[in-house]
Amino acid sequence: MRILGILVCVATGAMLIWASGEFPPWGDPNSPASLHVSPRYIEKTMEETSVPNAVTSVLADYRGYDTMFETTVIFAAGVSCFMLLRLFSGRERSSHHYRHILTGLTLRVRRKGKQLPELEEFEPMDSLWTPYDLILRTLCRFLIPFIQLFALYVIAHGHHSPGGGFQGGVILGASMILLAISQDMRSALRRIRERTLAIFSVAGVAIYAGTGALCLILGSNFLDYAALSRIFPVDPVGARSLGIFLVEVGVGIAVMATMIVIYHNLASEGFLDEGL
Amino acid sequence: MDRILEVVIAKYNYWIYIVLMMIGLYGVIAKNNLVKKIVGMSIFQTAIILFFISMGMKKGATIPIIIHGQEASVMASDYINPLPHVLMLTAIVVAVSTLGVALALAVKIHKEFDTLEEDEILEKIRKS
């Protein structure tokens, strides 16, 4: 099997390397990929959308349909992760661990069902518990707000610098995952609950599709943001910029919520109480 | 000698992606462990992403953000092609999501069969 695999890979690779002779040289300004639609995008982006970042305007305006369904794919991935792994009531872990805060004594409670409510002297703990590292926890506590601030900047400043909804959403999601890793999953879920995450991931897709539908209601094509100038006090070109911003916010929310849902379900095998 | 060097300089980026892609393909078809297959799939995706990004490169051009103050005279040859960047931007996030689904399936399979080795799983399916 291994020899056959190597043979197949070497043969395919040799054919591809042979075919690469027909490809344009690296960095060739006259390569076919750079000649047909992309010059129009670059030359018209300021005139038509007033967004200097051509990547953002192509992403959310010229190729808006594509991006909408990419967002839907991410949402669907989050839903399928949830459906595959999440365990509902009646299938909780068979035992839970508690730690007496004052003495450090550990208790194992064999009792099926939900975790006991938090008591004053006992705290619930992970079965693979490690002592808290003070430096790590404090550093993460300090870092997370700045990471989130940077993520919001990346989303909001995507018109003028590299950035946008996808990147900012992933950074926001990573900050919440960092919280879950540096502390524990329970405190991360206390900050942003599972139900909130579900609502967010739906809301992100709904904001995107809703912006498109709003253009439809205002009498132009789906995702043709110029129509937004009728309800917002901006000219049609500015309305395109505004529409791109609304869409990017939707993408950011959807991506953030989906990343956190995937992490929580994978790390805790669907129990959503402890993990990593 | 100079001609060979010229060809290498013009085409070596493609060769790097082809090598990466074949490493990924080998992982997917020849490895027995499901997680290793998933790693191979990720390497394959990375190769495609790098390939697309390099297609958008133009010599002497800058990132596709119109420089402030130069909006009146935009030359397409001054900015690299934004289209591959857009496609790969979404592809990266979608790749992460599909990776999540693949890992979720692997977790499910591990719960069911207590192993991630493909031949052992097939044996257990045949027995049952």
Please give the radius of gyration of chain B in angstroms: 21 Å
Report on the biggest sheet of chain A. Answer: 3 strands, antiparallel
Biggest β-sheet strands, sense, barrel of chain B: none
* Rg of chain A computed from alpha carbons, rounded to a whole number of angstroms: 25 Å
Number of domains of chain B: 1
**CATH hierarchy class name of chain B:** Mainly Alpha
Helix fraction of chain A, binned, reads: 55-70%
Strand order of the largest sheet of chain A: 2-1-3
| Biggest interchain interface, per-side counts | A-B, 64 and 59 residues
Which class best fits the helix and strand makeup of chain A? mainly alpha
Poorly predicted segments of chain B: none
String of helices and strands of chain B: HHHH
CATH architecture descriptor name of chain B: Orthogonal Bundle
- Note poorly predicted spans of chain A: none
Average pLDDT of chain B: 90
Q: Give the N-to-C terminal Cα separation of chain A.
A: 35 Å
Quaternary status of these chains? heterodimer
Output the helix-strand order of chain A: HHHHEEEHHHHH
Shape of chain B: elongated
Any overview of this molecule?
Chain A has helices at 2-19, 38-49, 54-62, 64-85, 134-156, 165-182, 185-191, 194-217, 236-267; strands spanning 95-100, 106-110, 122-125. Chain A has 276 residues and is mostly helical. Chain A has a domain at 48-89 and 130-267. In chain A, helix 3 (54-62) packs across helix 4. In chain B, 73% of the residues lie in helices and 0% in strands. Chain B is built from four helices and no strands. In chain B, helix 2 (34-55) runs antiparallel to helix 3. Chain B is elongated. Chain B starts with a helix and ends with a helix. At the A-B interface, helix 1, helix 2, helix 3, helix 4 and helix 6 of A face helix 1 and helix 3 of B.
Summarize the structure.
With 276 residues, chain A is mostly helical. Chain A is built from 9 helices and 3 strands.
